[in-house]
Write a structure and sequence with these properties.
Number of helices: 9
Order of helices and strands: HHHEEEEEHHHEHEEHEEHEE
Number of strands: 12
Distance between the termini: 85 Å
Strand order of the largest sheet: 2-1-5-4-3
Strand content: 15-25%
Structural class: alpha+beta
Bound molecules: adenosine-5'-diphosphate
Helix content: 40-55%
Shape: rod-shaped
């Protein structure tokens, strides 16, 4: 067998074809067998009823009036007996025929016939003595050991049934062919989305990332699989694009401090014996290097938090105290910028979290709020219990964020164009979101240009936290 055909016989298409065809063909076979058995019963029933009735009549004469009376009864009946059709024989207890009738042009029944049959009617098929067909026989024993046989030539009937069998076999062969073809088409149709899937994976393997499984539009599991697969590919593509962009941004953002470091080093190298210039160059190098180290550190923190690898030092801590502590720290920067930083007094809000990481989260939100609010503006900070969670809101009436920027501000290194003039790495909100994610928390932003921004974060409340009485 060639390897191509052996692959086909191992394929799912072949197995499905075989299963579908088997179901189809066996159902058709069962139907045909049922129809044939009903037909043959119907054809045989008429003859059998007539013969059984006659045998019962003879038995009743023999029982009521004895064997000689039955012989006489048969003799008298001979005139109107349908001699063209039926065989009749009455044997005495020793098996010798007392009387017999044979259809015209037919040989007599064989001498040896079954005996001691009991009082119930028995059915048997005998070959005609001249070998030209079959005789169906109804027979029973009579009181005293005699036997009555009633027979009819069943050749025509059996020939007809045989013809039916041949026709049925022919139809069955046709049905089997149709079943195989239908099974194959059905299997191909069922597996079409899978074939699409295989073709798509092959295309992607050869570098065509935009290949997608064709959507058949049907509402079934395989199409659902194809749709999910396409959605997964879209997601992978956007992740790869995101990663590329992030890498480009990292390269771009690292280039500036690296170039500055290089310039400082070259300057220092060209300065001869000027200790002050050398010191300045070294400080510049240290500053730029710190910037790079901090950026790489935050990027690693974000990756760890997003992949669940961030090591959190969890402990019971009071969110209200953390909010107060952090706003106090940013009070100075706010005053310097001429922004009012106002905290709504709050009760204890226990959470189980990494306090240092939460300080980072609050610090970033407060830093942004103060940074992106012009002098004379205001930042409001509040925290409260909300169902099973603790929420903190940092709201400012600063410059706000454009609708196009809102979905992107949590991406690594993304900064809205107008923010580029302010200090920052574009990593703060990515880290905030990743740390909250690692804590099972959420972040939500409502903002519009000129109308200020409102960042709300939630964290699961400590399990044993009972709301303070009102
Ligand atoms: P950055 O270092 O630029 O502040 P972030 O990740 O903290 O980076 O924020 C991403 C961008 O989201 C910012 O560049 C800014 O455009 C926007 N943004 C964040 N917070 C605010 C805010 N309170 N008001 C206006 N814009 C904000």
């Amino acid at each position: 067998m060639s390897s191509r055909s052996s692959v086909f016989f191992r394929s799912t298409t072949f197995r499905l074809t075989a299963q579908y065809s088997l179901i189809f063909i066996s159902s058709a076979l069962i139907l045909f067998l049922l129809a044939y058995s009903l037909l043959s019963d119907a054809v045989r029933e008429g003859d059998r009823l007539a013969m059984a009735q006659k045998v019962r009549e003879y038995a009743s004469v023999a029982i009521k009036r004895g064997l000689p009376a039955l012989v006489e009864f048969v003799r008298m009946e001979r005139e109107d007996f349908d001699a063209d059709e039926y065989y009749l024989r009455l044997d005495d207890p020793s098996g010798q025929p007392l009387t017999q009738v044979t259809p015209t042009d037919a040989p007599a029944l064989p001498a040896e016939l079954p005996r001691d049959l009991g009082p119930a009617i028995q059915w048997a098929f005998l070959p005609r003595p001249d070998g030209e067909g079959l005789i169906e026989l109804a027979c029973r024993s009579l009181p005293g050991g005699a036997t009555v046989y009633m027979g009819k030539d069943a050749s025509d009937r059996e020939r007809l049934l045989k013809q039916f069998r041949v026709i049925f076999a022919g139809i069955m062969a046709l049905v089997a062919l149709v079943g195989l073809a239908a099974g194959f088409l059905l299997a191909r149709r069922t597996l079409k989305p899978i074939q699409g899937l295989i073709d798509t994976v092959r295309a992607i393997d050869t570098g065509r990332m935009d290949a997608r499984v064709p959507d058949e539009g049907a509402d079934n599991e395989l199409n659902e699989l194809a749709r999910l697969f396409n959605a997964m590919l879209d997601k992978i593509k956007s992740l790869i694009t995101g990663m590329r962009e992030a890498l480009d941004n990292v390269a771009h953002d690292l280039r500036t401090p690296a170039t500055r470091t290089l310039a400082a080093v070259e300057m220092a190298a060209s300065t001869k014996n000027d200790a002050e210039s050398l010191r300045e160059a070294l400080l510049d190098c240290a500053e730029e290097t710190r910037r790079m180290v901090s950026m790489l550190g935050i990027l690693m923190d974000i990756s760890e938090a997003e992949t669940g690898a961030m090591r959190l030092h969890l402990g019971r801590t009071d969110m209200a105290a953390l909010v107060t502590e952090m706003t106090e720290i940013y009070q100075y920067a706010a005053e310097e910028r001429g922004v009012a930083l106002v905290v709504t007094p709050m009760d204890r809000l226990p959470v189980v979290a990494d306090a240092d990481r939460l300080r980072q989260v609050l610090g970033n939100l407060l830093d942004n709020a103060v940074k992106y609010t012009p002098p004379g503006g205001r930042v409001d900070v509040s925290a409260w219990r909300e169902g099973g969670a603790v929420a903190v809101c940092v709201a400012d009436n600063g410059e706000g964020i454009g609708a196009d920027d809102i979905p992107r501000i949590f991406e690594r290194l993304y900064r809205a164009d107008k923010s580029r003039s302010k200090r920052g790495l574009g990593l703060g909100l990515s880290l905030v979101r990743a740390v909250l994610y690692a804590h099972g928390g959420t972040i939500d932003v409502k903002s519009a240009p000129g109308a200020g921004s409102r960042f709300t974060i939630t964290l699961p409340a400590a399990p044993d936290f009972k709301a303070a009485p009102a």
